[in-house]
Amino acid sequence: MRTGRENFMQLAIQSWRPVYEPQFTFGLKVSKWTLHQIAMLSACGPQLTNSPTVIVMVGLPARGKTYISKKLTRYLNWIGVPTKVFNVGEYRREAVKHYSSYDFFRPDNEEGMNVRKQCALAALRDVKLYLSAEGGQIAVFDATNTTRERRGMVLNFAKENGFKVFFIESVCNDPSVVATNVMEVKLSSPDYRDCNSTDAMEDFMKRINCYQASYQPLDPDNYDRDVSLIKVIDVGRRFLVNRVQDHIQSRIVYYLMNIHVQPRTIYLCRHGESEFNLKGKIGGDSGLSNRGKKFAIALNKFVEEQNLKDLKIWTSQLKRTIQTAEALKLPYEQWKALNEIDAGVCEEMTYEEIKEKHPEEFALRDQDKYYYRYPSGESYQDLVQRLEPVIMELERQENVLVICHQAAMRCLLAYFLDKSAAEMPYLKCPLHTVLKLTPVAYGCRVESICLNVEAVNTHRDQTEEAKKGPNPLMRRNSVTPLASPEPTKKPRINSFDEHVASSSAVLPVCMPQEVPTQLPGQPLLGKSCLRTVYHFLKVFSLLIFPRT
């Protein structure tokens, strides 16, 4: 005799369909609204976990949307997620060569409304091309998107193309912050190239009023409760997060909650010249040379001259950075994450010794320096992952001096200067030189300050062979696993049966014998869907037919 639960499960399996179609209720009272929500979620949800994502900016003008877009894109590209900004304002300026006044943005200006809509559609077409054919993973749709109609258009576009959507709304109710943003950024835009600041300010404030009249903020409590979003309120004083879907969205939320716009200065420098630097050796944990000690004294004088309030000093855990910081006679923190790149079997060797003892490794590293990993060591890509917590903390801080090493400094500098993975390993970070970084509106200003203490040159230029691109015959274990430079990756669904066979013995409860492992005429993806449905029904039946 079958129990009620077994009959329920058997009927459910026999009633399985490849599309959503409620076949059984068993006396349960399920509202039409609930069924509608389930159907919409199953229809709108992308089929693959790692589907491309469209980040949709929302907010009135001068609320920092473009600032967030550019900064977030810089971070995502730095951690290895191909991302690009599509600013609708640039499409509008391309379509309308000469900006006349705020009248173009009036809601009763039908011609202007039509031009703006066509520009948005053109940007979305480029978004589709980037995510579908150019290897992009995230596209940032940078526009006001202040109405539900416009956001609905973007949602339909994403649904048709199988993209995820994540909204970022920037809300600012502080008039002084808005005025500062207009003065620092908007008045220097191409729209006001030939206009004095007073007239430009007046025109832009009227432009904001045009959007204000039809502004419909995101409403996560009612209308937008099923939408993935974050509201950034008053430049990060408060946040509201709703329905984060996946890992990358959670990283975006975490990043946005760490950045700020307060004035600050970040100083990057390497340790003083070390004994191993003099010998041409890489890695190791040697102390400072005599010239390195002179640099430490010069650095102390430089820091005193800067007269910085509440300066924080960070070093690695290696001897040469600690000795450099000791001369400053100020408190400092040690970060293991700031240690030099691990050269593995090549530690404490010169480049000539590496070329002689490990000629293949020497050649492989020159072919693709960013992805190459030393045997038993690290790659630059590994180093970026290790330094991500440092970047997060730097974004939270004000004035910081970071005393680190050549490879670590290159990674940090690449983040602030928006350099690509190919450029990163060849950024020049000479000894006994301080780089002063000052964040500005859409980037970072860099000043190089030499402290006039001689030191050896440890920089190696990119070879002509490396400029041609990575060698396709590159040893696989020299590349970080699961993060290869291949632009696209296909899902391996053909290995599903082997995975089921290997896991069924370990998880007999989840994969009982009576469940068919193959349906005639159904694709492998259908089997995956069937098992997902089965797991849902397994739990659901326990609620209906409790054990006796």
From TrEMBL:
Stored InterPro entries: 6Pfruct_kin (IPR003094), 6Phosfructo_kin (IPR013079), His_Pase_superF_clade-1 (IPR013078), His_PPase_superfam (IPR029033), P-loop_NTPase (IPR027417), PG/BPGM_mutase_AS (IPR001345)
- Is the keyword Glycoprotein in the record? no
**Binding annotation for substrate:** R270, H271, G272, E273, S274, E275, F276, N277, R320
Q: Which Gene3D superfamilies match?
A: P-loop containing nucleotide triphosphate hydrolases, Phosphoglycerate mutase-like
Q: Name one GO cellular component term.
A: nucleoplasm
Q: Which residues form the active site?
A: H271, E340
One GO term in the molecular function aspect is: fructose-2,6-bisphosphate 2-phosphatase activity
User: Region annotation Disordered: residue ranges?
Assistant: 460-493
Q: Name one Pfam family in it.
A: His_Phos_1
Which segments does the entry list as coiled coil? none
Its GO biological process terms? apoptotic process; fructose 2,6-bisphosphate metabolic process; fructose metabolic process; glial cell differentiation; glycolytic process; motor behavior
Q: Which SUPFAM superfamilies match?
A: P-loop containing nucleoside triphosphate hydrolases, Phosphoglycerate mutase-like
Q: So what family is this one in?
A: In the C-terminal section; belongs to the phosphoglycerate mutase family.
Q: This protein is called what?
A: 6-phosphofructo-2-kinase/fructose-2,6-biphosphatase 3
Identify the species of origin.
Chrysemys picta bellii (Western painted turtle)
Gene that specifies this protein: PFKFB3
